Amino acid sequence: MSLSDRIAQRTQGESAWPTPMIEPSADVGAAPVERHRFNARTTADPVAEVRPRMQRALAEILGPTLYGGQADGVEDLEQRVRQTLADLLAREETPLAGADRARITQEVTDEILGHGPIEGLLRDPTVSEIMVNGPRSVFIERAGRIQPAEVEFDDEAHLRRIIDRICSRVGRRVDEASPMVDARLPDGSRVNAVVPPIALDGSSLTIRKFAVQPLSVTDLVRFGTLTRNTADFLRACVRGRANIIVSGGTGSGKTTMLNVLSGFVPGGERIVTVEDAAELQLRQEHVVRLESRPPNFENRGVISIRDLVRNALRMRPDRIVVGEVRDAAALDMLQAMNTGHDGSLTTLHANSPRDALARLETMVLMAGMDLPLRAIREQTASAVHLVIQVSRLRDGSRRVTHISEIVGMEAEIISLQDIFLYDQGSAALAATGIRPRLLESLLIHGVTVPAGTFTEGRR
């Protein structure tokens, strides 16, 4: 029986080999090939006709190599896959243009070694987030804007195979018993997957890609997120050991801002970072990174953010940086700020500086210590110096809209004053004319801020 006959016969059944679960190399040997949205039910596309045969034949020929560990690394495996595909395509009887052959090679390689239809999106440096709402609905974020992606999965089973592959590579599982998973890929990208029965319209997959080269303060000024004047002020606040909260909604740029602020910490200080999923990229030498751990398959072994913050206090830190507080860990963070760990930084979800304080209060109450509201507010007022509010605007851009100072208590209310506010007319942060009280504490640490920084209207 000829090879083409065997391939044709093979398409009537299932391959003897399962779907591969091999992570792709970060460097792809061949240039990316543009994918096309294609409905699998349409038979006019020769690529859709030939691709499944090539994939099954490849699995049949290279099965032991793909699954038996006989290849010398991913690069060697990819080379064998591409060479075998070239041989198979050379014997293929269906007329194919050169572009179709390249497309088949790329798509089969992505399916065998990578993450199927979304592999090209993962390689694309302009894509920051991938959102899969079901096998036929894929969206991406590019330059701050959400747009449809020109890719899709064959069906729900295809999407589930890719989700299972991603989860298995990081030692996690997702099924009916555990239908949600939150994990971090080896490259640092954050993954969230939700499957039926709680995902009603098919499995959902969200990947927030890890920036290999994090944005710098220069980038934020260039993008208009900050002005040079406000960037210099924030640098002075961090060097002067002010405690800062970065507040904002999902996808507003909180972690990016926190990373930039952390970069202002002098190199000689010991920094302990605490995160749910490691995203911060500090360049200082004296850094200890801690990451929380979810429960295992037996629902044991969980290590929470609160556990890590408590442990960080025993590690003789000069600064504690918490990626995000969202529960009772807020109490431990406030205590750290109030007990000699000045200059600590964190983020939380809120829509304004005032909302951030209310949310902080709610999270402290979650600790179950039955603290009076006034005591919580007094501790907050004495611990936190600045709240930086970041927002994502309608055009997709990310802007700092408030830099507000906590100045104490008035009766039962925490007093806030805005030092800088976003001006809609000029689309930039502008000084309100208020001179912050924390300048005196900055001076104690040898940090001075030019008086002209706060001239009303200065950007």
UniProtKB/TrEMBL annotation:
<dbReference type="InterPro" id="IPR027417">
    <property type="entry name" value="P-loop_NTPase"/>
</dbReference>
<dbReference type="GO" id="GO:0016887">
    <property type="term" value="F:ATP hydrolysis activity"/>
</dbReference>
<comment type="similarity">
    <text>Belongs to the GSP E family.</text>
</comment>
<dbReference type="Pfam" id="PF00437">
    <property type="entry name" value="T2SSE"/>
</dbReference>
<feature type="region of interest" description="Disordered">
    <location>
        <begin position="1"/>
        <end position="20"/>
    </location>
</feature>
<feature type="domain" description="Bacterial type II secretion system protein E">
    <location>
        <begin position="313"/>
        <end position="327"/>
    </location>
</feature>
<dbReference type="InterPro" id="IPR001482">
    <property type="entry name" value="T2SS/T4SS_dom"/>
</dbReference>
<dbReference type="InterPro" id="IPR050921">
    <property type="entry name" value="T4SS_GSP_E_ATPase"/>
</dbReference>
<feature type="compositionally biased region" description="Polar residues">
    <location>
        <begin position="1"/>
        <end position="14"/>
    </location>
</feature>
<protein>
    <submittedName>
        <fullName>Type II secretion system protein E</fullName>
    </submittedName>
</protein>
